[in-house]
Amino acid sequence: MLFTLGVLDGGQHLTILPEMLVDRELRSGRFVRIAVDAAPWTRPLIVATRVRGPRAPEVAKLIALLQEVVNDVDN
């Protein structure tokens, strides 16, 4: 991540990064946000866990909650 910020800061480059990763730079004025007149972007959500071992009940609850949220958004 530091490499990406350094490259962006050091030249005439453009990048697409999550806002949380450049929040400090945006607030300080080091970087500027470019307004894009387009539909909101989406990106896939990948939920992963290790292959071996039992799933904790909390993991099953989280997966069920995520599925519920996705179903609500799709409808």
Automatic annotation (TrEMBL):
- By its UniProt entry, which SUPFAM superfamilies does this protein fall under? Periplasmic binding protein-like II
Matching Pfam families = LysR_substrate (PF03466)
Q: Where does the LysR substrate-binding domain lie?
A: 9-69
Specify the domain of life of the species encoding this protein. Answer: Bacteria
Q: What is this protein called?
A: LysR substrate binding domain-containing protein
